[in-house]
């Protein structure tokens, strides 16, 4: 029978094909935490005194990142505020919001729930009942980013943490390579700083952890998470890329890591070669940074009114 490669325990919960390693429950938890701490140190993601906004959906990624960052909070290195966005998706979002509330309460950290309805006077369900809608995820992404940026400013956060994992990051890299989208490629990485002082830097401490291992982490730590999928999630380009990478990983178990590492090297050259386009304009309606007269939020809201 296989034994944990670290402590010799026979209760193995994972065999990592990429390294040949076997791990028991406790050694696996410790290993994931150490890896995340290492990413944080290597990429200098956190500084003493940071006030960190965690975008907490209640899903496995955001719950895991908050669980791991809590260690810094307990040691008084950082302050943490969790923010959950309620898009207004009936029968789906409520469970996640409740899980997020319970988790933040258990940890004793400040928690805010901000809804599309309060912010824009419309829910995602209402948007989707408009026959001229542009697709759920288009609004969802733009509105969520807007809420997170504004809330970060309101509470004086110095960093925004998201739960992006290795699979998410590799999908984004490949999508933007294939579309030749240099601007978007430049905004990928462990820390993204916007040129506008109105936007708080975003960090991704789980960027080197595969999605499967985050799923196992929440089980190993017995964390309550919202596993249900969004009813609007559809077969997208991202979904196709995800499937390709999963298939490739069967015979090439390190391919996601090598794609990420390769990109991190290439990014240095991209940044030298291409100066990021940045327009110092502000939306004439809401005043947020925008490259056009109206920002995307205001453009969408105007369209939906018609
Ligand atoms: Fe929003 Fe659902 Fe699309 Fe995710 S899948 S971006 S929650 S609409
Ligand atoms: Zn605007």
Could you walk me through the main structural features you see in this protein, from its secondary elements to its overall organization?
The protein has 306 residues and is an alpha/beta fold. The protein folds into two domains: 28-272, Rossmann fold; 276-306, no CATH class. 49% of the residues lie in helices and 11% in strands. It has twelve helices and eight strands. It has helices at 25-42, 60-74, 93-107, 116-120, 124-128, 136-155, 166-179, 182-186, 211-220, 237-251, 255-273, 296-305, and strands spanning 12-15, 22-24, 51-55, 79-86, 110-115, 159-161, 191-192, 202-203. The chain has a six-stranded mixed β-sheet with strand order 5-4-3-6-8-7, with helices on both faces. Helix 1 (25-42) crosses helix 9 and helix 7 crosses helix 10 (237-251). The longest helix is centred in the middle third of the chain and has 20 residues, at 136-155. The radius of gyration is 20 Å and the shape is globular. Bound molecules: iron/sulfur cluster and zinc ion (ZN). Iron/sulfur cluster binds next to helix 6.
């Amino acid at each position: 029978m296989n034994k944990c490669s670290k402590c010799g325990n026979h209760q193995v919960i994972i065999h990592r094909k990429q390294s040949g390693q076997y791990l028991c429950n406790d050694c696996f938890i410790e290993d994931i935490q150490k890896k995340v701490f290492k990413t944080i140190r290597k990429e200098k993601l956190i500084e003493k005194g940071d006030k960190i906004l965690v975008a907490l959906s209640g899903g496995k990624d955001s719950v895991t990142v908050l669980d791991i960052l809590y260690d810094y909070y307990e040691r008084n290195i950082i302050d943490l505020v969790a923010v959950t966005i309620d898009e207004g998706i009936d029968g789906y979002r409520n469970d996640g919001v409740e899980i997020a509330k319970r988790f933040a309460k258990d940890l004793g950290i400040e928690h805010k729930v901000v809804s599309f309805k309060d912010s824009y006077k419309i829910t995602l369900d209402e948007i989707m009942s408009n026959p001229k809608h542009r697709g759920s995820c288009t609004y969802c992404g733009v509105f969520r980013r807007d809420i997170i940026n504004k809330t970060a400013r309101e509470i004086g956060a110095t960093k925004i943490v998201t739960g992006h994992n290795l699979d998410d990051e590799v999908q984004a890299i490949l999508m933007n390579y294939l579309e030749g989208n240099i601007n978007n490629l430049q905004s990928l990485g462990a820390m993204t700083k916007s040129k506008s002082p109105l936007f708080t830097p975003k960090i991704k401490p789980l960027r080197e952890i595969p999605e499967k291992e985050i799923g196992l982490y929440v089980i190993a730590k017995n964390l309550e998470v919202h596993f249900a999928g969004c009813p609007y999630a559809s077969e997208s380009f991202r979904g196709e890329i995800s499937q390709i990478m999963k298939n490739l990983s069967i015979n090439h178990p390190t391919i996601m890591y090598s794609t990420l590492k390769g990109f991190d090297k290439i990014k240095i050259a991209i940044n030298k070669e291409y100066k990021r386009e940045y327009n110092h304009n502000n939306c004439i309606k809401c005043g947020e940074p925008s490259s056009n007269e109206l920002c995307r939020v205001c453009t969408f809201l105007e369209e939906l009114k018609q």
